[in-house]
Predict the structure of Diaminobutyrate--2-oxoglutarate transaminase.
Amino acid sequence: MATDIFETRESQVRSYCMNWPATFAKASGPYQWTEDGTRYLDFFSGAGALNYGHNHPELRDLVVDYLANDGVTHSMDMKTPAKRRFLETFERVILEPRKMDYKVMFPGPTGTNTVEAALKLARKVTGRQHILSFTNAFHGMTLGALSVTGNSMKRRGAGIPLTNSSKIPYDDYFDGDMPDFLWLEKILEDSGSGVDKPAAVIVETVQGEGGLNAARMDWLKSLADLLRRHKILLIVDDVQAGCGRTGRFFSFEEAGLYPDIVCVSKSISGYGLAMALTLFKPELDVWEGGEHNGTFRGNNLAFITAARALELFWSDDSFQNQLGERIKELRDGLEKIAEHVPGASIRGRGFLTGIHFPNPDTAGKTAAEAYKRNLLVETSGPQDEVLKLMPALNIESEDLQKGLAIVEESVLAATGNLGEPSRLRAPR
Ligand SMILES: *Cc1c(COP(=O)(O)O)cnc(C)c1O
């Protein structure tokens, strides 16, 4: 029986609140509290939009001060001190130390907006229409982004044919049975292949929604090399894997890549505010003024929190080094947990890591058991067969271990290996 306004009035399109029906009223760091004060540990982090946890106090105070002083909140793409400070900080803290000379474009404020901008730009620059993307890719919900997304349910939602793109096999799609890029290399060289020469290839270095498939660095390097030889643009969609999620600011740094176009969103504001960037090499900046536009490209609250978050976490190596230790802790913990289930294996990279279960139902059951124990953790993959852990990057070791203990108990409960049901309540 429908009892509350969410069920009587809100569309059935909603998803996360179906698995996690609590009403969350407060949040701080890695924790959220429901209206009645029950505390939940958050290993979901807004699907990667909350890399520094909820309501980081220093960022929150900046927002409060900015509002109290009547700072400009909405500014289209006009100049504001907040935007200047963001651009200067991004240049100084992120681009220059990495020797990345990239133009910064503010598309609309979401991940799918930056993907749309990237696809448009790649087509405009090359004069070609076709885009290649990978099996199990996820790039967003608008039509262009959906056309390069793998998931069949989400694609059906478009309601029209999704054209001008083709899928190619992601790293290890054939479980090592096929040499890398065998098909791609061949069709690009064969003028009889019938595959139109693409404008660009769009890739995630770790497929966040598609099952935490993590590409090998060598595979990424070979892809970049192949595309360079064929004068095809490389777009890295770093919306989920970027902003530190995999251990460095950009997920492709370890591979030594300089993609032609980079999509950034989710955690760039540092505070869960809507913001996105499309980065591209200066010679690709062929836009006419206003050719790509949008009302919400000037979210000044996001600019100020983003600039401060970059300074706080990325101006030297200390945060990255600490994150490296936590990543090891998470991986070690998950490896021990996976031993409870024959055939289970670890997927992903960095703080975008999880457990792949041989029985696809196990992941969902584990997530449900975790919720009963006040832990938010989601699933990923075409059959939701992967339990996906995304704790805040600045989580304390103690909280990380607490969450891992709940995950372990939840896996045992989901696979029928936990004793008495009375043991099911986790300590708060
Ligand atoms: C979440 C995500 C998007 C879409 O971002 P939205 O803000 O939901 O539009 C695009 N690409 C990747 C890799 C994502 O994880």
User: Anything to note?
Assistant: Residues 420-428 have pLDDT under 50 and may be disordered. The chain has 14 helices and 17 strands. The domain at 4-12+34-51+317-414 is CATH 3.90.1150.10 (Aspartate Aminotransferase, domain 1). The first helix runs from residue 5 to 9.
